[in-house]
Specification:
Length: 330
């Protein structure tokens, strides 16, 4: 990934008895929509006004990501079939995925057969109506915005456990990945956020913009198509941060009613109102800031399997894995 020019990272500090000082990221599952009733920070980077919201407790460190091969946890997604987190590195690395426990311990490494890592930036999980789980990998990074088309891979989710942890030094192989080529209707874009909606299986790619809002594109999951699938621009989204569209990760909650986006600094949650059932209406909601922890270079965020908490990761080796729990009253 690349940082935008001329933006300083600033952390909000509140003094108890003094004047204020300068103020300083796919998990999805389910089958059908519910009814309406139912470390130091890098510079340069964005300035964020994010602070803990009433919806979530303060972040706690669930563990450290010590897997030797994980240099930059560029994407993060919680499985919907097992208590496992999945992550990967970005450009310049092999086509490998890493399984972690919810405390950051290694559960093994897999090579994604039939895939290449040009610039993997995001991962999401999807559980189909038959209960089968798959991993969706977004090779969607394009810092120079010169890729006419990008790739999205889908692979059956491997079963991970403490018994597969030895695969760190000798990676296992996944089943062959299905590939979908994807292009934007308005030219090349850089993106680091890929989401899969649990109600429909549709894929959403959210762009990363150094100025202005990020674009949201819906992509039909036409894996194996012989021609590139053209995404549909369904919305623009701005978060309460500067830059407003420099988004680096995201996740959709298992019930499909919440979207968490993140930049390098913080998280921003959109919530679909109870009386609304169109999933695209969530992009009309106002994002609320959420503290995702003191991440050095935050790019990975995922709702937990139960949908009641969040996990957040950072690039850099031996980075902390944060757990952010939603308050029970919500």
């Amino acid at each position: 990934m690349r940082f935008p020019p001329n933006h300083l990272t600033i952390k909000t500090v509140v003094a108890l008895a003094a004047s204020a000082l300068l103020t300083g990221c796919g998990a999805t599952a389910g089958n059908a929509p519910p009814t309406a009733a139912e470390g130091s920070r890098p510079t340069p980077g964005p300035t964020s006004s994010a602070a803990p919201t009433s919806d979530y407790e303060a972040p706690v460190v669930a563990g450290l990501i010590r897997t030797a091969g994980i240099k930059e946890s560029s994407g993060l997604s919680a499985s919907e079939c097992q208590d496992v987190l999945w992550t990967h590195n970005d450009s310049g690395n092999d086509a490998l995925i890493y399984a972690l426990s919810t405390s950051g311990e290694s559960l093994g490494t897999w090579r994604v057969e039939g895939a290449q890592n040009t610039d993997w930036e995001s991962i999401a999980t999807y559980r189909d109506p038959g209960g089968n789980c798959s991993l969706i990998l977004g090779d969607i990074g394009d810092n120079d915005e010169n890729r006419g088309e990008v790739e999205i891979y889908r692979v059956p989710e491997p079963v991970a456990s403490t018994g597969t942890a030895s695969a760190d030094t000798e990676p296992r192989s996944t089943e062959p990945a299905q590939t979908m080529r994807f292009s934007y209707p308005d030219g090349s874009n850089n993106a680091e956020t890929l989401l899969v909606h649990p109600w429909t299986g549709d894929i959403y790619v959210v762009t990363k913009k150094e100025s202005g809002p990020a674009g949201v594109y819906r992509v039909a999951p036409a894996f194996g198509a012989t021609v590139p699938v053209v995404g549909e621009h369904v919305a623009d989204v701005s978060v309460p941060s500067q830059p407003e569209g420099l988004l680096t990760g995201g996740s959709i909650s298992p019930d499909g009613r919440r979207v968490m986006l993140c930049d390098l600094q913080a998280g921003y949650e959109l919530v679909l109102p109870d009386d609304v059932s169109d999933p695209d209406d969530i992009w009309l909601q106002v994002p609320s800031p959420v503290d995702l922890g003191d991440r050095k270079q935050g790019e990975g965020v995922s709702y937990a399997r139960d949908g009641l908490s969040l996990f957040a990761s950072s690039e850099k080796k031996n980075s902390p894995l944060y757990l952010i729990t939603r308050r029970q009253s919500y």
